[in-house]
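INFO batch 0412 | record 1 of 1 | parsing
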Amino acid sequence: MAKVIMVQGTMSNAGKSLLCAGLCRIFAQDGYRVAPFKSQNMALNSYITEEGLEMGRAQVMQAEAARQKPLVCMNPILLKPTTDMGSQVIVNGEVVGNMPAREYFSYKKSLIPEIQKAFRKLEELADIIVIEGAGSPAEINLKENDIVNMGLAELVDAPVLLTGDIDRGGVFAQLLGTLMLLTETERARVKGLVINKFRGDKSILDPGIAMLEELGKVPVAGVVPYMQVALEDEDSLTARFDRRERGLIDLAVIRYPRISNFTDFDVFEQHPEVTVRYVASLAELGNPDMVFLPGSKNTMGDLLWLRESGLEAAVKKLSADTPVFGICGGYQMLGARISDPYGVEEGGSLRGMELLPVETVLEREKVREQKEAALPRIRGSLGCLSGRTVSGYEIHMGETVMTETEGAVTGFGAGECPPLLISRGNVYGSYLHGIFDAEGIAPAVIGMLAEKKGIVCETGEMRSYQAFKESQYEKLADTLRGCLDMEQIYGMLREARI
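INFO prediction complete | emitting tokens
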């Protein structure tokens, strides 16, 4: 059997995903075959595997850290919230359906065999499996039929590292309170505590750590500093949404209520003079150099929000002189109309922003596939991308067709339904997630925007996005080696599943 270790947190966004990624890279550096695992993930950032199956991007990031190909068995259950009360349920990469929270709460126990099957497949591929929990194991209203925290730890006999977020305050109460709310059997699984996101002189914590270990009867395995690593975020708790500074090149991403796959724009953040701002109001928009409309889990609902907030009118006005790029749901919004005859989202029909000559009909079946292609000659501001090769994946509910060809780029997937990329004036649309990630694409866009402003913005040191992420995984692993008691963690592995 593979050895296992599980990272649980005192709350959401306590740093579980990054700790798991760092451990995956450390174990891989030490010569082990490593795989990440999260039985159930709730996130709107998802990915399509080579087999055309959908999984959460957090486990994709961890798989990359482990130097492994992303496999859907690393995340057998994915929940994508569609409303405040329900989610689309995806099992083994395929949509099961939409369920209200209460219905899923009753249904999830039946998914245990699927979790076990996925885990057994990983055991055939890995020496060590690094498991990520979700939220907190002390959510007493959710502990019945738990399949992602202590319930999963018991199912696969995993020792647990419990991490708390000191940056949000009350970390000693977080850790001790969580331990107090666990059963005796569950507490026995917790083999180490981690204080995460610490800023300052660690020696100041020593008296608190001593008392924490005395009261909790669990050793502290490390104090992790607040790290400046640029890796993908799992969900809408990301600190990226709080950024307000504006660099020499100012990129604005419209942050509608059901924003999804906003990782499409992370590639631009490696340039020190470029800022990516997430904009949720007219007052925040200002006069950016480029506007992005990202994906959405409820395209029609988010389009209505865009309209009611005044951002639709503002973006349309900006498009006269400013590049506007829509991806997936954002692409659909830029068209003339979105229709939903099967009630996939809101039902009925809705006028689009009327900036691109396309119409979309939402279908019952989801499109899921990876693609790679060379771009044709592109008109307008993004002519700098003509002839470059891009790759990524499509994931959408809907069939989009062109209503006219005059003034639109038709060479990239023109014969396909939907077309992969079209443009009219300064407005562009594509279904391809990751379209800016390939080598040379983001630097070309930045260079074009800088030239348009009459400024110099050197991009020669920008690497491919994959190379940049590799540097961040190495930085993450080096930091964790320096602050975690790796001998203690390897001891937890040696004792696991004997």
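INFO post-check: The chain has a mean pLDDT of 91.
INFO record closed
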